[in-house]
Design goal:
The protein is an alpha/beta fold and 312 residues long. The protein is built from ten helices and ten strands. It has two domains: 32-117 and 277-294, Rossmann fold (3-Layer(aba) Sandwich); 142-263, Rossmann fold (3-Layer(aba) Sandwich).
Length: 312
């Protein structure tokens, strides 16, 4: 491909992350802290099944146990909160993932707030998002952290960088802005009320876009040589059938950009790798907590109630 040298290959970058994650998982296991993620899905959704399949496959490659729990769409929110509380108190479970979407009567934010911050491998708990504001991130939202990791992979100096973030969601756009401000970048955040979007994007050295609108950003909206991190995932109809595309028009943007992420194969694989890196961080935090509480981190199973099994 003519512009292949401009591609930020998310699969390659994720593979590099996997090497370090796998080594850390092995060390934790040797220390008696095997990792186990529990995925909670409510109702039948094709999108959730795809995400769960990708997460389970990646976890398996890295030596992380992965348990799928599927609950009927009719389950009450109070029942789910009780289930999450049980997972919080089970020392065999080191990470909890709440799959989206959830049924209308279930608030995904309430479920995420119920997950203990030490087991919040998605980085969605208010305390973990808040830690980004105070510049002490441990487990931030996976997509935001992955997007910044991709930018860093270009070796672009971040101090003084002009960045435009298109999309101001609490779990993607806003965390990206805070993460980059902590690195010394100057960040402009745009949204649906922004006037003259192109004026902001043309002034930027880096453009992040995450709004869910195919082809929103085009090549004539970019500064030559800019980095484009496309976080959007959209399915569009083409003469050859359905196709997954991002929020940036890839062909025109690739002609202008210095670096650009493909969709698929860009932010997605790095997001899953970031989830697994968060899983390692979560287990380390729990190990350190048990060390301070019990004076030893020899084995998570040592702290189970009498008669409990380490299986499951």
């Amino acid at each position: 491909m003519e512009n292949a040298h401009k591609l930020l290959d998310g699969r390659k970058i994720a593979g590099e992350m996997h090497q370090k994650i796998s080594a850390d998982v092995e060390v934790l296991g040797t220390d008696g802290w095997p990792l186990k993620l529990v995925s909670v899905s409510i109702g039948e959704t094709d999108a959730a099944r795809l995400y769960v399949r990708n997460q389970k496959r990646t976890a398996g490659k890295l030596g992380i146990a992965f348990e799928e729990r599927d609950y009927p769409a009719e389950i009450s929110e109070s029942e789910l909160l009780g289930i999450i509380q049980g997972l919080n108190t089970d020392p065999r479970v080191t990470g909890i993932i709440i799959q989206r979407p959830t049924p209308q009567h279930v608030s995904v934010r309430r479920l995420q707030r119920a997950v203990h911050p030490f087991k919040d491998v998605e980085g969605m708990h208010p305390s973990n998002i808040g830690s980004i504001v105070y510049e002490v991130p441990k487990m931030g939202p996976c997509t935001a952290m992955a997007s910044v990791h991709l930018l860093k992979a270009t070796k672009t100096p971040l101090q003084g960088l002009e960045v435009t973030v298109i999309g101001h969601s609490a779990i993607v756009g806003k965390p990206i802005a805070f993460l980059l401000m902590a690195e010394g970048a100057t960040v402009t955040v745009c949204h649906h009320e922004t006037r003259n979007l192109a004026m902001h994007s043309r002034a930027a050295d880096v453009v992040f876009v995450a709004v869910g609108k195919a082809g929103l950003v085009t090549g004539d909206m970019l500064k030559p040589g800019a980095v484009v991190i496309d976080i959007g995932i959209n399915q569009v109809d083409t003469p050859d059938g359905p196709k997954v595309v991002g929020d940036a028009d890839f062909e025109s943007c690739a002609e202008t950009a210095g670096w650009i992420t493909p969709v698929p194969g860009g932010v997605g694989p790095v997001t899953v790798a970031t989830l697994m890196r968060n899983a390692v961080t979560a287990a380390q935090l729990q190990r350190d907590h048990y060390t301070s509480e019990f004076g030893t981190a020899h084995s998570v199973y040592a702290h189970l109630p009498p008669g409990s099994s380490g299986a499951g």
